[in-house]
Write a structure and sequence with these properties.
With 165 residues, the protein is an alpha+beta fold. It has a single domain, classed as Aminopeptidase. The chain is built from 5 helices and 5 strands; from the N terminus they run βαααβββαβα. The longest helix is centred in the C-terminal third of the chain and has 15 residues.
């Protein structure tokens, strides 16, 4: 943590109104995924925030959206998470699916418990809102985060294969 100490860290919660505040960090996350990607780096390098923002806004309209910002001081955002709950039709009827859609923490603020706080709050929020299933997608090349997610009870279930055009 910076010289001003951990007491300066605060968390701010909201919905789609906070999306513009995460743009810079989202772009850094996308660049990191492009660096680590084994097969689909170009899909990360060509991704743009306005398209992703539209997806998040659609999730907010048709379901529920939670954004949590980790902030230092009054205006420096050092990390964020975006979570959503949407309904999915299954053989057993309608099920609410909670998803950790996006999470990023600046490198110098990692390993300080911010990500753990994000996950704890996300899991509480999923439970409060009746999510029957919780998922998170992890890009190939970023497998080191699997252990982090395991602590929240999120375990690998399948490997999605995609043809590269």
């Amino acid at each position: 943590m910076k010289a001003d100490g951990p007491e300066q860290l605060k968390f701010v919660e909201g919905g789609a109104e906070l999306l513009d505040k995460i743009e810079s960090l989202w772009k850094q996350q996308t660049a990191l995924h492009a660096e680590k990607s084994l097969h689909f780096a170009e899909s990360f390098t060509t991704a743009n925030f306005s398209d992703r923002k539209s997806v998040f806004e659609q999730k907010a309209r048709t379901g529920t959206l939670l954004i949590v910002l980790a902030m230092v001081g009054s205006d420096q955002i050092v990390g964020y998470t975006v979570c959503s709950i949407c309904e999915e039709l299954s053989d057993l009827g309608v099920c609410k699916i909670g998803e950790v859609d996006s999470m990023f923490i600046l490198a110098e603020f990692r390993r300080l418990g911010i990500g753990r706080k994000f996950l704890v709050r996300s899991m509480e929020w999923f439970e409060q809102n009746g999510a029957g299933k919780v998922i998170a997608l992890v890009a190939v090349g970023n497998e080191e985060v699997l252990e982090f997610y395991r602590h929240a009870g999120l375990l690998p279930r399948a490997i999605l294969l995609q043809r590269k055009d």
